[in-house]
Fold:
Amino acid sequence: MLQNKIRRLVVGVVTAVASLLVVTSPATAETSAVRVIKYDTSQAQEFKAAWDEGAKVWNASVKNVRLEPGTPAQIRILADNGWPRAQVSGLGRGTVWMGRTAVNDGHHVPRITAHELGHILGLPDRRTGLCVDLMSGASAGTGCKNPLPNAAEKAQVERNFAGGFVAPTSTDGSDWALAG
Structure:
């Protein structure tokens, strides 16, 4: 128990220091072309509005990529009774699922949508257990209501879409299944 608390504290400090070390020039971000990525919520069922909210979170957080509803879409969004997950087929492309299991367990729906879209934007799971880390997913617990990426996560997405492409990490949603 104490070791877990110490580990979380160390990870939090390292994350905070890393976010301070990442310096993005405003001129660089402004001169980069905005990449528009379309997403299709026609099969998102009752979660359509939640995915729109997740897209708004990212649109307010980064400058060189914009998520917009529409077709043809690079992101296909589905709903099922499993765990939320993303299947990334390339940077800015893939399929995401809103699994009702996490919702029924009490996880914050806007956090789930922003997290899964984070995978499409090239971010891996972190499982730090810290609510401030969007990509910690369900490891932050059901009490975590933060749908916002931290400074390091925002900076990574900006770098991912700054002209060069980083191979994103695929995920099967096990970050949500391992919470508890």
